[in-house]
Amino acid sequence: MSFKSLGLSEALLKAISKKGYSIPSPIQAKAIPPVLLGVDVLASAQTGTGKTAGFTLPLLHLLSERPAERHRPVRALILTPTRELAAQVYANVREYSEFLDIRSTVIFGGVNQKSQVSTIRQGVDVLVATPGRLLDLHNQGLLSLKHVEIFVLDEADRMLDMGFLRDIERVMKIMPAKRQNLMFSATFSKDIKKLANGILNHPAQVEATPENTAVEAISQKVYRVAKGKKTDLIIKLILDGNWKQVLVFARTKHGANKLTKKMISEGITAAAIHGNKSQGARTKALAGFKNGTVSVLVATDIAARGLDIPLLPHVVNFEIPNISEDYVHRIGRTGRAGAKGEAISLVSADETTFLRDIEKLIGEKLPVEIMEGYEPDPNASTAPIKQGGGGGRSRNSNNSKPKTAKSSESKSSHNSRRPKRTNDRRSKS
Ligand code: AMP
Description:
Blueprint: H1 10-19, H2 26-37, E1 41-44, H3 51-65, E2 76-79, H4 83-96, E3 104-107, H5 114-121, E4 126-129, H6 131-139, E5 150-153, H7 156-161, H8 165-173, E6 180-185, H9 190-199, E7 204-207, E8 218-224, H10 230-241, E9 246-249, H11 253-265, E10 270-273, H12 279-291, E11 296-299, H13 301-304, E12 314-317, H14 324-331, E13 341-347, H15 352-362, E14 368-369
Parallel strand pairs: 1-6, 1-7, 2-4, 2-5, 3-4, 5-6, 8-13, 8-14, 9-11, 9-12, 10-11, 12-13
Bound molecules: adenosine monophosphate (AMP).
Residues 21, 24-25, 28, 47-53, 308, 310, 336-337 line the site of adenosine monophosphate.
């Protein structure tokens, strides 16, 4: 299978080869043909599968074949949940349209709207946007979506997680009823299916099956560790392994800040990225992480959503997520586009239930190790971590245990009741 055999134009093939892609990823091979046919598409794909090119390439092909009106109204709208993802998708649109007569721009909140408005005024064919700023500019009469022919809803599950349902419905009302719709989502809850029913018209359904995604190329491992020893363990892993690019997930903004500070005090270049950071600080941290001046990026789930960091070698779950699907999203940041990656989870006793839920979701038991000197506390309670402060989302599992017993793990670093293990490896049976 080649990009050429998918029927893409010469100008797009040139841009693809400039990007260095030789063969389409599975989701691209499956999604591009129906999009080119002009039908609606419902695609199941997570970040890391090459989904962005999966919708951008055929979208650009279609637009470039249809003559643009002189005033260049917006003919394709790509809606994304976060500013970072919007910026990344836009960067892709620009690269792929380099040899086409297609104009594009991106709009998102948190920055002055002036330059965004002036670019739109000059006319753009493809608009990449987050819902808030889009509606804001529309309400001010500064943009029109009356000529939209193709609508893409990217990371639809994240959109719902972030409470954008109403905004999506508003956006739908200001576009023409007759248009082509493409919806991408990593997970398919009841709500997502309902949303898809409302947006899509007899869609072609495509998916990047798990064996085709990057997940296979990821080696996953769990360290069982006392809660109070997690910080020391992660620092040891980073320093001993001489890791130069590590994405670390923390459950709370406060936890992310604390961990970052500690790492910096140990001589590791680290930066935190979360909802309380300004757009400028987030962009700076991400840029530093990409260019190698920052080795460790400590992120919360919401902030990390959609970050495009190619060839990321290490992802560490400092705390594992209480929503199992987030685990798959997190580790999808590594082992991308064929590169090998390592996903490590530090799991304390109070995360045992979450770990079981994750193993149930991914259908496999994760290999467990214990590092000498960083053993779990055998007396710690396995009652799940109390929720709150983690972004306000609730856990959707039903095997949550009552949150009564207090965790004693934080004191475990001084626990001498337990004999030391002689070997630091152990396999969970
Ligand atoms: P995405 O899932 O769209 O975020 O893409 C994940 C990563 O894969 C990005 O860094 C892309 O540049 C890269 N990528 C996308 N398509 C291909 C391809 N056909 N071959 C190699 N890399 C690709």
